[in-house]
Specification:
The chain has 113 residues and is mainly beta. It is built from no helices and 12 strands. The chain is globular, with a radius of gyration of 14 Å.
């Protein structure tokens, strides 16, 4: 059985306390803009910062909330909702974005992109 193994390069983004709960920040990782979100006191998510619906790098400035069981960010331009766990655009799945693993180590947020 063949399996694709994806190796991640982990990058330090910021201290977890620098991200206000229920908001996002933008980080440049390996030339790619990544939106990192802190939901509540201790849940972290990372997706592409680029909103393909609006052709703009704005997702880190979107509003965090939930739709049913899904934790989402609403893009500040056209209000499309992106699932923070998967990157799926709920209104336009063809315009979904990538999601990335996130971890906290000694108070520092690390993202694999």
């Amino acid at each position: 059985m063949h399996r694709d193994i994806q190796l991640h390069h982990w990058s330090a983004v910021c201290a977890v306390d620098e991200i206000v709960p229920d908001t996002g920040v933008c980080a440049l990782l390996n030339g790619r803009q990544v939106a990192v979100f802190r939901v509540g006191p201790d849940r972290l998510f990372a997706i592409d910062n680029y909103d393909p619906n609006a052709n703009a790098a704005v997702l880190s400035r979107g509003l965090v909330g939930s739709l049913g069981e899904r934790i989402v960010v609403a893009s500040p331009i056209y209000k499309h909702h992106f699932d923070l766990q998967t990157g799926e655009c709920l209104e336009a799945p063809a315009h979904s974005v990538s999601s990335f693993p996130v971890r906290v180590e000694d108070g520092t947020v690390w993202v694999a992109a």
